[in-house]
Every structure is written in C-alpha cells, then in structure tokens.
Protein: Cytochrome b5 heme-binding domain-containing protein
Amino acid sequence: MTRVRHRVEPRDLPRRQVNKRETAAPQWLYLVSSSGRCRSRAHGINRPNGGIATAESSSLEARPAARPVSLKVAMAGGKVYSFEEVRKHSDRKDCWLIIAGKVYDVTPFMEEHPGGDEVLLACVGKDATADFEDIGHTDSAKELMPQYCVGEVDAATIPAKLTHAVVTKDAASRSEKTTTASAGTWATLLQLALPVLLLALAFALQNYSRAKAA
Ligand code: HEM
Structure:
C-alpha cells in the first residue's frame, strides 16, 4: 500500500481546507493554529515520525481513541476514584492525571500534547495542579480538559505526606475561609476587650493614688 506523506508546516495551518472528514483530525492542529503557541513542539519533537503527518494519521479511522474518550467521559458521570486507583494509571498507554481535584485520562492526548508526553508522565502519581498552572496553559488548553475528565479524586484517600501538594481547589478555598474567619474573630474580640481593659487600668490607678493620698 502506498502511504501518502506530507509535512504540515505551521504557516499552512490557517489556510488548510477543513472538510467534514478533517474536523475529526487531531485537535493539536487546531489548537496550535488558534493559540499560535508551541508550534515547534507540536510539529515534530514529540511525534515518533518526526512530525510528519500521514494521510492515515489524520483520518478518524486511524485514531479510534479520539471518540471513545468523549463517550467514556459522558458515561463517567462524576465518578470518584481513590488516589491509589488513579496512581495505577501511570503508563504511556494508560495515563491519568489529577488536576484541581479532577481526574483526567490523558492517554489519547499523550502524543498530541504540545508540551510532550514526558511532562505528562512526570505528573502521574501526584497532584499535577501546580505543574499545570505554572506552565500558564491558555484557555484553549483548558477548554480541552473536560473531554479527558473521567471523574474526581477522593481527597480522603490522598496519602498524608502528599496532602500539602494534593489539595483540591475547594479544600484550598475552604481552608482559606477558615483562616480568615478565625483571624476576624480575634480582631473583633480585641476591639471589644481593649476599652474594658483601659477602663480597668484607669480605675486601678485612681484607687492606687487615693490610697496613697490617705
Ligand atoms: C488535561 C491536561 C492537559 C491539557 C489538556 C494540556 C494542553 C496543552 C496545550 C493545548 C498546550 C499548548 C499551549 C496552550 O494552549 O496552553 C500545552 C502546552 C504545554 N503543556 Fe499541557 N496540557 C495538560 C496538562 C499538562 C501538564 C500536567 C503539564 C505538566 C507540566 C503540561 C505541560 C505543558 C508544557 C510544558 C507545555 C508547553 C508550553 C510551551 O512550550 O509554551 N501540560 N498543553
């Protein structure tokens, strides 16, 4: 069988003719063209064939994993996984990540991830929230996330030694609120107690000087 090969140059992307069949092509093509970032990476470094897109690799049939994901997510219905369960998926062919308390099955995205698959693999078995945020992912990247979301991580199952890093956004905001609330309570108490303390001091001084004079 003759394989048609063509190199996809970044400058070609916006001009590419997108027919119905091509709308199912890898999302990294569209992401890259819309965000304008990470072009070099998306176009070679992480692709085993050196960035050469084949006619087959662009077709829906050649990428069966692309559709089952959304189906899987649709059926996931907010499933809650234990940390241990999530940690089991730590392979290039089966890779789950925890970002902001949610669990993402990024297996079908490994090769397409503009940042490369190695960075994703480096984030398994821990909370990848900080790593994800530090990169400064664009809104386009964040819009991609829901389709890879398979559920949430049960915060109670996270090992204690990891809890400083594995904090969900909810938990973080809850603890922030608690700290703010207790600081506010102390300030109010101090405001109320201060005049009483001053009065007591003045009274004591007055008594002391009267006693001295007598
Ligand atoms: C579901 C999870 C993720 C999705 C959907 C995603 C998606 C993307 C996308 C679309 C880009 C292109 C730039 C942009 O639009 O922001 C990108 C770049 C990148 N991502 Fe991710 N990403 C994910 C998780 C992660 C994680 C956990 C890391 C860990 C460090 C990471 C590291 C990077 C790096 C290093 C780049 C390249 C940045 C650059 O060269 O400017 N990504 N990602």
